[in-house]
Recover the amino acids of this structure.
């Protein structure tokens, strides 16, 4: 099969074909799952010389181990509830959301649960399930990790590593779930509608700061509850960030403004633009979709600064870094540094966020 990068397509053709290919992939996945379910039921892998469907999938179908595991898990759920195949084919459920739902699906509730999960992301389904099937709070736990010589970047000093587990309510729970000895990925998972388990690895330095904060807060939080201490710390951090980024203050002064012709955006303009755009990227696509990103937000001149655009509330909007660069390219053409039109440093594509 000869597949090339489709340089020749127009933008519209490229987007249309991309959508059609994604639909095709969803249908193909649903078909693969349906065949895998029947293959599993007939246990044909045994006759083919494999002791398990998993090994067969890896060695004969060339699926990666996680891909094989996910597909087999879903195929076994589908054997009990074949309705799921249609939803997988339409793309209203994904392998990930089916796997989350599977342990909770019963003859009585499956229609309702599947309908409620349709079209939702993995994170949204996780949140929905936590609301419907709340789990007990995890106990607050700080544990010293054993030496971690093989942890790659960033290096964690072996004698200093600690896991901090925080539940948002200080409630004793029957038995703590076993923590992995080493974890390089943080955990943030919903336990119930409004409670989360948060777990991460911290340095000895961070642990010391936590202890100090607990001690200094004894008057307000006598039991030193970590969830409350962290909440106060984050509140203070957000207030500080708001002050630095948007000039938010409890006592706004009349602005001295900025020098005529300056690229700087005055603090009162920042505050008003921030509040008008709700602290989110205000870019709206041709089809009317607003971006709404909250990360890498920048103040942008609607009429570019380079052609005399002023730093007024009407001419200042919030854009995420990617859309700021996109608008700048649209105006100036590619190759021109996007900072030509913004009050910030150079452009670098924002990192792809890690899945939770
Ligand atoms: Zn954006």
């Amino acid at each position: 099969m000869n597949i090339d990068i489709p340089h020749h397509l127009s933008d519209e053709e490229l987007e249309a074909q991309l959508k059609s290919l994604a639909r095709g992939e969803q249908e193909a996945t649903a078909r693969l799952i349906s065949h895998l379910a029947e293959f599993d039921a007939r246990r044909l892998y045994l006759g083919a010389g494999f002791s398990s469907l998993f090994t067969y999938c890896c060695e004969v179908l060339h699926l990666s181990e996680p891909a094989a595991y996910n597909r087999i898990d879903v195929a076994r759920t589908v054997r009990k509830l074949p309705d799921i195949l249609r939803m997988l084919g339409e793309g209203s459920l994904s392998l990930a959301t089916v796997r989350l739902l599977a342990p909770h699906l019963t003859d009585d509730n499956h229609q309702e649960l599947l309908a409620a999960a349709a079209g939702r992301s993995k994170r949204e389904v996780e949140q929905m399930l936590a609301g419907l099937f709340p789990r007990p709070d995890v106990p607050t736990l700080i544990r010293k990790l054993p030496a971690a010589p093989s942890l790659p970047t960033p290096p964690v000093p072996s004698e200093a590593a600690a896991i901090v587990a925080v539940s948002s309510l200080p409630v004793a729970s029957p038995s703590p779930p076993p923590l992995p000895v080493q974890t390089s990925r943080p955990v943030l998972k919903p336990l119930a509608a409004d409670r989360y388990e948060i777990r991460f690895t911290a340095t000895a330095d961070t642990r010391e700061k936590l202890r100090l904060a607990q001690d200094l807060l004894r008057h307000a939080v006598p039991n030193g509850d970590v969830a409350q201490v962290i909440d106060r710390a984050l509140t203070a951090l957000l207030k500080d960030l708001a002050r630095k980024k948007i000039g938010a203050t409890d006592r706004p002064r009349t602005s001295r403004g900025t020098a005529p012709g300056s690229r700087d955006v005055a603090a009162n303009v920042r505050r008003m633009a921030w509040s008008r755009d709700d602290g989110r990227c205000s870019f709206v696509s041709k089809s009317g979709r607003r971006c709404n990103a909250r990360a890498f937000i920048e103040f942008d001149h609607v009429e570019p600064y380079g052609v005399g655009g002023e730093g007024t509330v009407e001419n200042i909007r919030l854009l995420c870094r990617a859309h700021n660069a996109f608008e700048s390219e649209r105006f100036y053409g590619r190759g021109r540094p996007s900072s030509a039109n913004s009050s910030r440093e150079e452009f670098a594509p924002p990192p792809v966020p890690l899945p939770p």
Notes: The chain has a mean pLDDT of 83. The radius of gyration is 26 Å. The chain is about 40% helix and 10% strand.
